Amino acid sequence: MLSLVVDIIICITKFTEGGWVIIAIVPILVAVLLRLNRQYVEEAAELQEDAPLAAAAPIMARHVVLVFVDQLDMAAARAIQYARTLTPDDLRAVHFAVDAVRASELRRSWRSSASAASRSTSSNAPTALTRAAVELVADGLADGNTEVTVLLLASSTPAAGIASCTTARPTPSPKPSPTSRTPT
User: Fold this and answer.
1) With a cut of 70, which residues of the chain have pLDDT below it?
2) 137-149 burial, b if ≥16 CB within 10 A, otherwise e?
């Protein structure tokens, strides 16, 4: 109680000297941090809830790895090398062509390389790149038996190295009935 009285006195005496900023900002920060904490708690619960289902999910019949490249450089070569370690059924380096000249240069340099990855080039406006990438992954998942892994490179994203590795699976099958047995 004494601390509250001291805080009120300090706020009143320092209000005109900038104390009002603290009075305004602290409650906002507390609200934002409490909301962020609630989101983390919900995500942690969701991750724990889905873990048994994910562990019991069947292995997909096919595995496709898509490496999104902007140019054929050391980062692309390392990403393709890493993609090979995933032992995919289909490994594709994909370039979304915004500039036709750059796309043709990439095709020429790709032909001169000895890469095991097949290549595909899609022409898209810059605003449609995300949509084109999502549609490409969705096409891979369409049969329901294919797992798609996407590798994004630093040359196409602001981060360094392999910026993201995302594996997409079709929606899991319904939970087994209570009468079915799982091995122990």
Assistant:
1) 112-127, 154-184
2) beebbeeeebbbb
